[in-house]
Specification:
about 120 residues, seven-stranded mixed β-sheet
Amino acid sequence: VQLQASGGGVVQAGDSLKLSCAASGPTFSSYLMAWFRQRPGKEREFVASVTRSGGNTFYAESVKGRFTISRDNAKNTVYLQMNSLKLEDTAVYYCAAKSYDKITYGSWGQGTLVTVSS
């Protein structure tokens, strides 16, 4: 599956932003989807994931209660709604897909930059 992330931009602390990740291919619903991010000078880290049906979601502690991951299998798209953004949320955000029969994420989007300013 090929992934195309979009929606990044420059916002102020406390603002909201919604990222989208469009997937190609007819088997989108067979993939667990996730968002990762890489902050300046840091390793890439997990942000959130959603199961194939969308019924279960998981979040990093740092974003729990502020970010919401969701998916629309009819549109082959996964979203990341980010509220109450903080300066430390500044990062390149990547969407990723993991096939149901794989252990690791095998497909990655190109990344979209989110900059949170004071």
